[in-house]
Each structure stands twice: as structure tokens, then as C-alpha cells.
Amino acid sequence: MRRWFSISLLLLLVACSTTGAPTATVPAQPSPTATTQPSPTTAPTATTQPSPTIEPTATPISSDPRTGRPAMARGTLTQRPYITMIDNFPAAYPQTGLDQAAIVFEALAEYGVTRYMAVFTPDLAEVAGDLGPIRSARLYFVQWAMGFRAVYTHAGGSPEGLERLAADANDLVIDIDLVSLESRQIFDYSRRSLAREAPHNLYTSAAEIAQYVDDRASSSAQADVSEVGYLFAPEAAIAEPISTIDYFFIYPEDPAGWRYDADTNEYARLRRGTAHIDAVSGEQLTFKSIVTMEVVEAPIIGDDKGRIDQQVIGEGRALVFANGSLQEATWRKDSESAPLRFYAANAAEIVFPAGPIWIAAMPSLDNVSYQ
């Protein structure tokens, strides 16, 4: 009986210890969710330096104070700027005259090959030599040119580009199509180099462009250019600059790039890893500011030349490299006739250091790397 009582008491104590005593509360652990890794970016934000707020000067600066190279400052033009389409096919290397431009656009033409649209101040006619090789127009280049009210020189073009130029009738731009001139007259305003093969050997000059306007388009020479150009301010270089910029358009094996020189506050251009030089000066191209802008592009259905269309009216993302720093920006062009503008995150228009600007329009800013 005593043994049975002892066993019963033991069982009762065990039951009380397992049901009556509070169990140790284990803190709830968060479910192990998959950590979202940031997508690999070719643009390391760790090196991005904040850009100081820069106000444009009250009196527009129309040239780089260091070099005297042109800055197309808003409010300084009194006549239409000159624009030429410049070949970038390998048979056109090296080009002539890009080092004289106030602004250069770099954008795809077809099959991954880019083309340049060089914008010159009209007083260039007094100092510049040859420009070229000249190549054909595309609709999106024409639309950019319209925002400059330019004298637009090219050699033929896509059906869409030529149709738009014909409809404009020398209003927003004065159209100089060198290959549409009669064979005798073309050499009044251009020439073919015997050192290169056609079509990569057609050249003109600012003086010849000016002569064409006098001869054939004097009634259209004047235009309202008061809103043409950008805002500029004195240099404001930073202590720890972004020194390397690289990008490609479609094929990574066909890159372009820039190397920043803090001593000159300029960016020196590379093409396929080597210095991009001017054919006449033999010097590497340098520009004061570099802009990369993202545009939607698509092939033109049924085009047997592989040409593309690009949406350059509207707005999109941009990166502005100037003074060794980077600003994330928005590009905006409200209509064909409207100028292309760049705006900072606070909606203020970007103010550039005085000097030439290089603008590269590409399908994705993921194609840009910098450090």
C-alpha cells in the first residue's frame, strides 16, 4: 500500500510539473526571407559626389575661360547655329571638326553604329576649317536640331527624316542636303576627299555653310534663337572627383569613355579604349561636361537598311557629369520645336561649367559605368 501511494504521488508530481509550470517562452524569430540583393549596377553609387547648387551668371558666359572654346549660352546667339551630321563608321576615323563644336550629340544610327550631330556657334565660320565626313539625317536628329533653330547640314537621310525636313520648309531649320544638290552645285558647298572612299569622304566647312545660306536661304536666315543654348556658371570642381566614365550603346565590346583631368576640369574622350583624336589637330577630344540620357529606341518595321527610331520628345532619365561630379537628372523636350533641357532632382535646370557639352543618347543608363 505504501509502495502504491509513493508511485501515485510521484506520478502526480510529474503531471503537475508538465502542465502547471509555465514553459520557457522562445522569442519569435522572423521568418528567414530571401534577402533582396541589389541588381548589379554598372554605376557604383558609393563614388557619387553631391553636386553643389550652382547659379547661372547674370551675364551669360559664352566660352570656356581657360581655353576659349565655345559655350552655347542661352541669350548670346544672334543667328542660327550650324549643325552637321558627322560619320562614325570606322572608315570615317578620324573625324574633323568635332573639337570645334559647342555641343555634340552621339546616338545610334543603325546596326549598333552611332552617329554624331555637331552643333557649332555661327561665328565658327571665321576660324574653322573642314567639317566631316558628312552623313545622313534621321528623324530624331532632325527633331533635336529643330530645338536649336539650326542650319542643318547632312547628306541624304532616312525617309522619315527627309519627309519631316521637307514639311518644315526652312522654318525651324534651314535644310542643307548636300546630296540633293545637282552634281555641279554640290561642290560649291562641299568636296570629296580623295584619301577616303565614298560615302565616308564628304566634307564641308562653316564658311561654305554660311555661303549656302546667303545664296539660297537668305529669306529664312533670321530666327528667334533667344531660348537656344544652356545655362553656364564658373567652375566648381570637387575634391574627390569621379574620374572614369564608360558606356556602350548595344554591344559591350564597342565602348566609348571619358577620363577626367582635375587640372583642366575637362573630360578626355576614348573610343574603343583608345584616344579619340581630331584628324587636323591630332589632339584628343576634350569636353567640359558629359551627359548620358536614356531614350526609347526600336527598329523601324520594314526598313531594309536596319534603321531605328528613337523617342526624343518627352522626358527620361539622364546622368550629368561636370566638375568631376555626378547629378542624376531628367531630360525634357516638350515638342519638336522645344529645346532639349536637363533638370536636377529639385526641378531646377542644370547649370553647366562654361565650355562644350557632349550628349550621348542610349537605350539604357545601365550601360553606363563610372568611378
Radius of gyration: 30 Å
The tally of helices reads 5
At CATH's second level, what is the architecture? 3-Layer(bba) Sandwich
Structural class, by secondary structure, is alpha+beta
Key traits:
YerB-like fold, 371 residues, ten-stranded mixed beta sheet, disordered N terminus, single chain, signal, alpha+beta, 23 strands, six-stranded antiparallel beta sheet
Written account of the structure:
Residues 67-216, 256-359 form the DUF3048 domain. Pfam families: DUF3048 (PF11258), DUF3048_C (PF17479). The protein is of the alpha+beta class and 371 residues long. The chain has a single domain, classed as YerB-like fold. 15% of the residues lie in helices and 29% in strands. Strands 6-5-1-3-2-22-15-18-19-20 form a ten-stranded mixed β-sheet, with helices on both faces. Strands 10, 11, 12, 13, 14 and 23 form a six-stranded antiparallel β-sheet that branches. Strands 4-8-7 form a three-stranded antiparallel β-sheet. Helix 2 packs parallel to helix 3. The longest helix is centred in the first third of the chain and has 18 residues, at 2-19. The model is unreliable at 1-50 (pLDDT under 50).
Topology:
Blueprint: H1 2-19, E1 82-86, E2 103-110, E3 113-120, E4 130-131, H2 139-146, E5 151-154, H3 159-168, E6 174-177, H4 183-189, E7 191-192, E8 202-205, H5 206-216, E9 231-233, E10 244-247, E11 256-261, E12 266-271, E13 274-275, E14 286-287, E15 289-294, E16 296-299, E17 308-311, E18 314-322, E19 325-333, E20 341-343, E21 351-353, E22 357-362, E23 368-370
Parallel strand pairs: 1-5, 2-22, 5-6, 9-21, 15-22
Antiparallel strand pairs: 1-3, 2-3, 4-8, 7-8, 10-11, 10-23, 11-12, 12-13, 12-14, 15-18, 16-17, 18-19, 19-20
Helix pairs in contact: 2-3
